[in-house]
Structure formats: C-alpha cells, structure tokens
Amino acid sequence: MTSAAEPTASAAPDSTYSLVVVSNRLPIEIEVSEDGTEGWRTSPGGLVTALEPMMRSSDGAWVGWPGIADRSFDPFENDGISIVPVRLSESELEDYYEGFSNDTIWPLYHDVIAPPRYHREWWEAYVRVNRRFADAAASAAAPGATVWVHDYQLQLVPRMLRDARPDLVIGFFNHIPFPPYGIYAQLPWRKQILDGLLGADLIGFQRLADAGNFSRAVRRLYGYPTRGVAIDVPAPDGKHRRVIAKHFPISIDAAAYEELARRPEIQERARQIREDLGNPQTIMLGVDRLDYTKGIAHRIKAFGELLADGSLSVEDVTLVQVASPSRERVGPYIALRDEIELAVGRLNGDFSTISHTAISYHHHGYPREEMVALYLAADVMLVTALRDGMNLVAKEYVAVRFDRDGVLVLSEFAGAADELKQAVLINPHDIDGVKAAILRAVAMPRQERLRRMRSLRRKVFDNDVDAWSSSFLRTLTEGAAVRPGIPDTLAGALKDLSRADNILVALDFDGTLAPHVDKPEDARAVAGTREAVQRLLDLDGVRVAFVSGRALVSLRHVSQPQTDVLLAGSHGIEVQLDTPEIELDLVTEELEQLDALARVLERISGSIDGTWIERKPAGLALHTRLATPRKAAAALKAARGELGTLLPGLTVRDGKDVIEFAVRASTKGDALARLRRHAGADRVFYAGDDTTDEDAFAVLRPGDVGLKIGAGDSLAGYRVRGPEDVPLVLGLIADARAAVAAEREAAAGA
Ligand code: GDG
C-alpha cells in the first residue's frame, strides 16, 4: 500500500509553482523505522492519484501538515511533486484539528448528528492555523497561479489568500456536506466562514443540495445577489467579483480498483475470506471510518432484529464490519467506539455459534489489497450513513465488481445516492426499511443483480476521479478565472494597434456584442455598443465589420448596423461590403455546382411524397419530415448516391429529417480574410466567443489583436468576461486612435 521515498533536498520551492494544492494532510507522512531513521511514506489516496499527473506536468506543489506535531521540515521534492510542509504544534492539533474541525464543523455540517461544541479558543486556533496555510500557499504560488484548497479544516484560506495575492486563481472543494441554513446558523462564526470561502473563484461541493445550501446562507447572511451557480460578491474597487458555487461529485480511480480486483492473488484471498467465515451463503460487508455519521449502529440494529425474528440465520449470513480507527482523541469518537463494540459484543453473544460468528468485527486499518478482496467476497455491501459528503466506499465496491455481481444497499443521505440510483436506496433511520432492504438484497435474483450493477458501474467509470478533478480545474481556470474588467496587457496591445494606418475592427455578434438568448431573433447588443461602434466609424482609417454564422438577413435584423458597417453572414458565404445588396460570394464553378445540385434534388423531391427542398445561400437542404420512413430513407439514399458521384466535393451535413449539401465550406477565417482585403487594413482586431471564431483567430497576423469573450480554450491572445466588457474595449480603441490622430496633427502642425 505504501512506498517509501527519499526526499531530494535540492528542490526547495521558489515561488514558481503554477498549481498549488492545499490540504490539511500532505499526501505523504513521516515513517520512523526501528533504528530511528526517518523516511517519507506515500499514502496513495484518491486525491493524490487524481492530481499527481497534473501536479507533475504543471509544476505543482502540495502544501499540508505532514502528520507529526511540533516538527518543522524544509520543503522538498517527493516523487516528482514538491512538498511544502506546514508545522502544527500539539496544542494547535487539539484546538484547530480535533477541536474546531472535528468537534465543531464536522458535527455541524453533518446535520448535528452529534452536538457541535463551540469554543472560542478553538476558533482562534482555527484562524491562526488557516493563516499559516494561506501564507505557505501564497509564498509557493507563482504569479497568476491556480491554488486549489481542500476541505472544511481550511475554509478561511481562500479569503486570506485573495487578500494577500489578488493575482491568484483560487478554488475550494468541500468534501463534506454543507448544511441547511437552519443548522448552519448555529455557528457563532457563520459570517466569517462564509466570507473565508467567498475568497475563492470557484467553490465546489459534493451535491447540488450542498451548493444550494451554501448560496442560500450567503443570501441570508450577506444579501449578495445569487443567480444559478453565480454569486456576485462586492469587490474593494466597488465592482463585483463573480464566485461560482457548484457541485462536482468526487469519485475514485475506478480502473485502478478493477485492476486490483482482477489480480489472481486477490481473488484467491476473497475465496479464502469466504472459507474462513465458514462459507456462508451471504456475506454482508460494512467498511467505514469509525464515525457517528456512518450509521454503523443502525446497520447492526437492523441485522440483529433480522436474526432475532428468524428472517436470517448466522449459518446463512455473516456481517463483516471493518471500522477503521479514527479521531481517537475526540470525545464523541471515544464514546462511539464503546457504543458500537457493546452492540457487536451483545449481538455476537446472543446469536453467534461455535462455528458461525454473526458479526466479524475489525477495528483496524487494512491494506488496500485486503479491502478489495473483502469487496470481492461481499455479496451485499451496506452503506447506511446518516449523512455523508459522498461515500467513496460505495463507489469502490462497484468498481471492484467486474463480475457485475453483488448488491449495494446505499443510504439516500450519502452524496453517492445522487448518482448511484440503481443501488437499493434506504433511509437508515427507518430500521424496518433497512431490514426490508437487507432481505431484498439477500434474495435478489441474479438477473436483477447483474442489471443493477452494470448500470452502477457505468456511472462510476464514466465519472472517475480524473474526470472529477479535470472538470473542477477546467471550470476554475476557464470560467471563474476570467476576471471582470479589461486586462492592462490588452489595453497596451490596443494602443499599439491603433498606430496602424488602416484598422479593421471585426466583431462576432452572438455572445460577443449580444448575450446569448433562447430565441435567436431576440438577441440584441448590450447597451453602449452602438455608441462605441459609432465612435469608431467616425474616425479616419478605421472600419468596423460584424461577422456571424447567421444568414446575413438575420444578422442585419438583430444587429441593426449603421450603414458603414461591413457585414459577413453565413460564416462569410454572404457579404455586404459598402453595397446596398447582399453579395453571394460564389465563383462561377460554385454557381454551376449549385445549379447541378438543385436539379438533382428537385428531381428527387418531385418524385417522392412528403419531401421538399430549401434553398440556402450556398447550398440546398432536402427535408423529409413529412415522408413515410421508407420514402424518407429512399430519398436520402438517392440524394447521397447521385450527388456522391456527380459532385463529390460537396459538404454534407446530416440533420434530423434533413440533409444539407453545400458548395462552399466557408469559415469565419475566410470571412475575415475577405474583410481585411476589402478594408485594406494593416492591422485587425477580432472579437468572438464561439469555437467558430477560432477560425478567425487562426488567421490573425503579428500585431493583430484577438479577443476571446468568456471561458474556453482559445487561440486569441486576450480575454474578457462577457459582452458587457466589449463596448469598453471598443471605447479604448477609439480613445487610443483619437490620441494618435491628435499626436499626428500636432506633429504635422509643428
Ligand atoms: C470524506 C467524506 C467523502 C477506510 N478504511 C480503510 C480504508 N478506508 C478508505 C475507504 C475509502 C476512504 O477510506 C473513506 O472514504 P469515504 O468517502 O467513505 O469517507 P470519509 O473518510 O468520511 O471521507 C466523504 C470523502 O471525504 C471524499 O471526498 O466521500 O463523504 O466524509 O477510500 O476505502 N482504506 C484502507 N484501509 C482501511 O482500513 N486501505
């Protein structure tokens, strides 16, 4: 399970890490061998596995506590990842970790299953330690780096980091639930914690409901406007900073679990476990940290009643319960261990026989291989959490069952229940319901088991931990990280651009000048666009063009351009360049192809009922919606067949009940090239938001300026957040150009 790795002392951090992960515990811990020498042991948790490749390729550092109190360690490199250890004293561990994290926040966030304890000195230690983590992260992070903070022990770190380093992109992921306001409101430091979290650009939660609870708490306590996943937080400059609060259900390295399960020695171990248990018909399994949130007592109670009423017998069914030691110095955990072990002892005393034990109970941590063998041996997996952020055990069980057998009984109070709907879902508080679910699982026919497990496996493999971390980081770096306002570098580039003799300012419409709307005909440019465009049109040597994938007539309708604006519609197939008429920019050969195309399709549609043709600027569409399926298929086949031979170069697009043939595959890049020629421009500014705009960015030349609107990969050199920023950018071009003109005039006069 573990591998020892010697640190290399040479790699001290130098503030150049572009990805910094911050978590309470480091992914490694110190190991003292018998002769007293110390080494570092990797703990291969899911989070490390998920982030490792990214950390390596993007120059990553991990900031966290190394698992031993009162010891300082210099930063070092371990297995390709830079490690930045944070020192914690024994009393800080008591107050910050065992106290505030595990005896205040943990019970509060888990529906007050145990009463949270509020102590001011715990809170003070929490603030102090969070500050230390934030400082360590701030000094490790390169300018503009991405910092990903994990979990409930570090909720103040995002705000502390943002204040110290406004240049950073900050993400936070909460591994445990976020409670409803009625519960959250108990927390004496409820406003400080929210403010701490709101320092992040993106706050990730396990469930949709958690993100909703968080947004509601922000509305109630701060009154900030929230819309969907977005929260607008007032910024010091009087503007707003957009924070996204969204669910990203965590997962596991499913393939790695399956790989372990396929190993012959692990399968052999699973067989051995069954034999050692006396070959019962059914093995039920529970695997949990010994925690009051996991509903271990509820599971034992239900099992005990089933044994008592004779529905199950110890000859047939054994429950294996792994309760791995956890937080053993925290009061409620000490009491819980006594409670559970009393219940197990009683039940075994009442029902076990010399040859059959009712509950095989283990208060140990096991190597992962042993856990996988247990999952393989278990016919029924019991996850009865009273509240759980996700519950990875449920997903691990599913990943291991490559034989598609086994039944998962899953609490609806575990985050995993949102995805794993084909499990037997239970309310663990309803003991009769749990008993019925256990009986159903024990007796479930093989066909049903296979069907359910197949669907569960699809879910777990489709959304594995890799998908989880990439989706979080993508949202963080592409979306939330687009800062409002105009970057200084863009302003500088626009000044340069405005020195050229002739400039073309070419603008996509939907998503660039106008926000996207549900009905395309309702799209309108944001306020201020028309005035900004007019200022540009009034300047010498500046031309403005609108470029769109829309048909030109539609572009004209929604953009209502001033007469001097050049227009390119249908990705450049149609243009209107200082003429009153739309030009269909087709060469003779293309026009001949269009005629031939029309002749073939007219003949086909004329001979097959329910089909008709639609003319497009550079092609035709054959619609089959009103034809019988057989006739529709015949029409499509004829069209494809005949045109494939006659006009092999056509672009073909299949749609629902329609097939479209075009003689020209024009792109916005072609459109921009045409506009550049027409305007005689030395320099071009192009702004767009869509993937089709990438064709235009691709034809920009040195000195041109490409501006991407919003999130997403782009070839453009600059980016702003949304259409509302575009009039400001156009205003900057106009200002810069006017200044150049004034300079030139002054120089000419002198
Ligand atoms: C928190 C949230 C959320 C347990 N015993 C042994 C062992 N384990 C492993 C399991 C699993 C992990 O520990 C436990 O993960 P869970 O998700 O079940 O629960 P928490 O520890 O409470 O985790 C939870 C999670 O964070 C991730 O976001 O899902 O809701 O509470 O991987 O296999 N592993 C080994 N030996 C043991 O004895 N090797």
Automatic annotation (TrEMBL):
Transmembrane segments: none annotated. It comes from the Bacteria. Pfam families: Glyco_transf_20, Trehalose_PPase. InterPro entries: Glyco_trans_20 (IPR001830), HAD-like_sf (IPR036412), HAD-SF_hydro_IIB (IPR006379), HAD_sf (IPR023214), Trehalose_PPase (IPR003337). NCBIfam families: HAD-SF-IIB, PRK14501.1, T6PP. In the C-terminal section; belongs to the trehalose phosphatase family. Belongs to the glycosyltransferase 20 family. PANTHER family: BCDNA.GH08860, TREHALOSE-6-PHOSPHATE SYNTHASE. This is Bifunctional alpha,alpha-trehalose-phosphate synthase (UDP-forming)/trehalose-phosphatase. It comes from Cryobacterium sandaracinum.
